[in-house]
Amino acid sequence: MPDFIAEWLDRNDIFTAMTLMEYWGGMVTTVQLVFLSLVIGLVVAVPLAILRTVKNPFISGPVWFYTYIFRGTPLLIQLYIIYYGLAQIEGIQETFWWLIFREPFYPALLAFTLNTAAYTTEIIRGAIVSTPNGEIEAAKAYGMNWFMRMRRIVLPSAARRGVQAYSNEVIFMLHASAIASVVTIVDLTGAARNIYSRFYAPFDAFIFVALLYMLLTFALVFAFRKLENHLLKHQRPLNS
Q: What digits encode the pLDDT tens for the residues 185-195?
């Protein structure tokens, strides 16, 4: 950071160079947590969504039960159960898993991943089952097997229909990540809480962090709008 900016910040009682770096560290943690949970959740959700469309209840039933549980309970409760419950598993503290899950970041990542995967599974499932029959029949007429139809016709078509709903899920996960601070993770909200307790200035600390969340949200909205325009560009009329 340039010296003149640091000197200007040091004249401020709250937003000094130290507190802004604390906000920056919280933003990095928030972005890491949300990004990893969304990527892993999406990778998990795609095959689960395909299994969810299978008519055999012994295959689709367990997936339905998983999505029902994680969509029917608050994310905060899921985080508490995973964060405090993993330590209660018999013998886990003597295994290598404890080296991972004793840090609060990874239980939070697991809770967020399982939650977003459940919602994303239903988003993708809805997009898959709404695939026009004409597209599927045309693929069969070309001699495509089930796997090829799913890879080349159904999933690309579902992606175009589901991108808008999925963008809402991404923004929801960004906002929901604020609860990570309850398990001692210093994310954006945790940084604001620390600064508030240090300076007893709740409005300054939390309004500033709200602006940072809005900045991240607008960046996501812009990115998804570009993605949606790219996926749906075939529907735009040709220039005369």
A: 999 999 999 99
End-to-end CA distance of the chain: 51
CA-based Rg of the chain, rounded to a whole angstrom? 22
Instruction: Looking at the chain, list the stretches that DSSP marks H as alpha helix, in order from N- to C-terminal side.
Output: 3-10, 17-52, 57-72, 75-85, 97-101, 105-129, 133-141, 146-149, 155-176, 188-199, 202-231
Identify whether the C-beta of residue 210 lies closer than 8 Å to the C-beta of residue 228: no
Q: Report if residue 3 sits inside a domain.
A: no
Asked if residue 173 is part of any domain, the answer here is yes
> In this structure, is residue 212 part of a structural domain?
yes
Q: Which is more confidently placed, 65 or 133?
A: 65
How many domains does the chain fold into? Answer: 1
Inside any domain, residue 165 = yes
Give the DSSP letter of residue 93. G
Domain of 30 in residue numbering reads as 18-231
